[in-house]
């Protein structure tokens, strides 16, 4: 399973987080954890766009693409519109992207 | 720090981006684009414009509710003008909620207007939010006679402890939301009072010009939030600060890497932070020659805001004294002028500040000259 994740927005420029993850390269327990989060979010059945409040300012938006076999789906979601079922996946991908950012800033690789 | 500079593009007019953005993209095309990292990044940046509703607002203009409120406001101001000696009375009604590290808004009410400060480390953001909301209401009321964000005395709601290690603060269209910071890039977001003033001013702009949230009008929207956020800090300081004493920095102390860093520097855009391990260096330009064209950040709303920010600083510095009095009044009267369109660019905003300065102080006044010189310094006029 291939997952692409990006966080845009925020009250200062340069807060963008990006992540490209091939779950087949992860340790088995982490692979299972993330693929379970995708499944429990009902990701493939989510609408492609989930808008937030039209007057929101400085808020985050997330774009997530999941490619699984011949299936591919992209969801664009405002922070305020993240469904409860999707929040754990967003939180996990945010953590993972921050791990990547930390590794990039110190020149090390993510375990 | 080339790696952290926003991606730039040659042609990026709001109109063309808007068209691309609002077309329903077939799934197979999305899938194909997603195969390329750079395409995914570009598409995601444009998607963020789509879901924040900026373009929808741009297409439909002000919502009906907002229009009605603006109408009521203008009527009430007309009444005030008829009775110039009437004391301005402003409603102060603050309610602070906690999301208890979840994502429900507003959450659980923990402190309402008139309640004493809450004790305990966990309640520090509750009290900071309460005080910051109060400081913002005070500036708008005492300096400009504005009765809360909508000028009709609306209740102010803030949610603290939003999410886990949440690294942002935002205005959601009807209330404030504060994270506790992730402790890695950001400290607690309720600490700097100018950040609270910044977010609440997004509410004022929403009820007034409704500046759309991308490109130059979006950068003006951001700049107004920085201007009045900074003025809240100067007004609330003990003793209150004159323009030459104020630091003109936004969010000083928020960045974990260095307590001297801020998010933005109005006097010296581009100098707020340097070589931060996660954010890199401040990308703000100080004049139009260095205007940044980018698809990120809603076409650079937090980047190019440095240009009008500096124009305000130059005006305030030239006039001296308390910045909220003359420079602030010119900016406030401009921001609330029905002639300010939601799609205004820098030059149109600048022309309107000149018009306001002439109306308030006369065309041969030092105030008019200060505004005119400031926009020339940043090469907008």
What does this structure look like?
The complex is a heterodimer of chains A (111) and B (381). Chain A is α+β, with helices and mostly antiparallel strands. Helices cover 30% and strands 30% of the residues of chain A. Chain A has helices at residues 28-40, 87-106; strands at 2-9, 17-22, 49-50, 60-68, 71-78. In chain A, strands 2-1-4-5-3 form a five-stranded mixed β-sheet, with helices on one face. In chain A, β1 (2-9) and β2 form a beta hairpin. The longest helix of chain A has 20 residues, at 87-106. Chain B is α/β, with parallel strands linked by helices and 381 residues long. Helix content of chain B is 45%, strand content 7%. Chain B has helices at residues 14-22, 27-34, 37-51, 54-60, 64-82, 124-144, 193-207, 215-236, 296-300, 306-319, 327-335, 346-361, 366-377, and strands spanning 94-98, 108-112, 156-160, 169-171, 176-178, 249-250, 264-265. In chain B, the strands form two sheets. Chain B has a five-stranded mixed β-sheet with strand order 2-1-3-5-4, covered by helices on one side. Chain B is globular and about 55 Å long. Chains A and B meet through β1, β3, β4, β5 and α2 of A and α2, α3, α4, β4 and α7 of B.
Layout of helices and strands:
The complex is a heterodimer of chains A (111) and B (381).
Chain A lengths: L1 E8 L7 E6 L5 H13 L8 E2 L9 E9 L2 E8 L8 H20 L5
Parallel strand pairs in A: 3-5
Antiparallel strand pairs in A: 1-2, 1-4, 4-5
Chain B lengths: L13 H9 L4 H8 L2 H15 L2 H7 L3 H19 L11 E5 L9 E5 L11 H21 L11 E5 L8 E3 L4 E3 L14 H15 L7 H22 L12 E2 L13 E2 L30 H5 L5 H14 L7 H9 L10 H16 L4 H12 L4
Parallel strand pairs in B: 1-3, 3-5
Antiparallel strand pairs in B: 1-2, 4-5, 6-7
Helix pairs in contact in B: 6-7, 6-8, 7-8, 8-10, 10-13, 11-12, 12-13
Detail the poorly predicted runs of chain A: none
The major β-sheet of chain A equals:
5 strands, mixed
Task: Give the amount of beta strand of chain A, in percent.
Answer: 25-35%
Q: Given the structure, what is the number of helices of chain B?
A: 13
Structural class of chain A: alpha+beta
Largest interface, with Cβ-Cβ < 8 Å? Answer: A-B, 47 and 58 residues
Quaternary form: heterodimer
Shape of chain A: globular
Overall average residue pLDDT of chain B: 86
Spans of chain B with pLDDT under 50 lasting ≥5 residues?
1-26, 81-85
């Amino acid at each position: 399973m291939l997952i692409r994740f990006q966080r845009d927005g925020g009250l200062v420029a340069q807060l963008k987080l990006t992540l490209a993850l091939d779950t087949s390269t992860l340790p088995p327990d982490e692979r299972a954890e993330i693929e379970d989060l995708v499944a429990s979010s009902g990701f493939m059945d989510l609408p492609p766009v989930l808008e937030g409040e039209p007057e929101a300012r400085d808020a985050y938006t997330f774009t997530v693409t999941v490619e699984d076999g011949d299936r591919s789906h992209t969801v664009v979601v405002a922070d305020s519109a993240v469904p409860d079922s999707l929040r754990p996946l967003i939180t996990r991908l945010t953590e993972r992207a921050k791990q990547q950012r930390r590794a990039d800033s110190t020149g090390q690789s993510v375990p | 720090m080339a790696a952290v500079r926003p991606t730039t593009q040659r042609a990026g007019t709001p109109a063309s981006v808007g068209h691309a953005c609002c077309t329903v993209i077939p799934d197979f095309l999305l899938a194909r684009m997603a195969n390329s990292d750079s395409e995914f990044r570009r598409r995601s940046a444009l998607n963020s414009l789509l879901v924040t509703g900026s373009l929808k607002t741009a297409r439909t203009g002000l919502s009906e509710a907002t229009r009605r409120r603006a109408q009521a406001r203008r009527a009430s101001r007309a009444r005030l003008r008829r009775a110039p000696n009437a004391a301005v009375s402003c409603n102060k009604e603050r309610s602070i909620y906690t999301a208890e590290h979840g994502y429900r808004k507003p959450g659980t009410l923990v402190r309402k207007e008139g309640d004493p400060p809450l004790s305990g480390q966990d309640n520090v953001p509750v009290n900071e939010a309460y005080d910051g909301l109060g400081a913002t209401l005070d500036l708008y009321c005492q300096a400009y006679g504005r009765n809360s964000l909508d000028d009709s005395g609306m209740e102010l709601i803030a949610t603290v402890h939003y999410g886990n290690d949440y690294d942002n603060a935002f205005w959601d269209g009807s209330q404030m939301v504060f994270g506790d910071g992730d402790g890695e890039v950001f400290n607690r977001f309720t600490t700097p009072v100018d950040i609270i003033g910044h977010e609440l001013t997004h509410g004022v702009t929403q009820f007034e010009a409704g500046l759309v949230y991308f490109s130059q009008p979006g950068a003006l929207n951001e700049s107004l939030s920085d201007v009045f956020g900074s003025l809240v800090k100067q007004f609330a300081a003990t003793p209150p600060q004159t323009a030459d004493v104020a630091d003109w920095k936004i969010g000083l102390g928020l960045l974990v890497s260095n307590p001297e860093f801020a998010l933005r520097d109005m006097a010296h855009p581009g100098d707020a932070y340097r070589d931060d391990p996660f954010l890199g260096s401040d990308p703000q330009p100080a004049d139009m020659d260095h205007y940044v064209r980018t698809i990120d950040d809603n076409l650079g709303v937090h980047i190019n805001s440095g240009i009008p920010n500096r124009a305000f600083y130059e005006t305030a510095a030239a006039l001296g004294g308390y910045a909220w009095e003359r420079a602030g009044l010119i900016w406030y009267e401009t921001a609330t002028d029905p002639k300010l369109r939601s799609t205004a660019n820098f030059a149109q905003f600048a022309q309107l500040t000149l018009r306001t300065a002439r109306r308030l102080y006369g065309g041969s006044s030092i105030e008019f000259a200060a505004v005119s010189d400031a926009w020339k310094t940043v090469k907008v006029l």
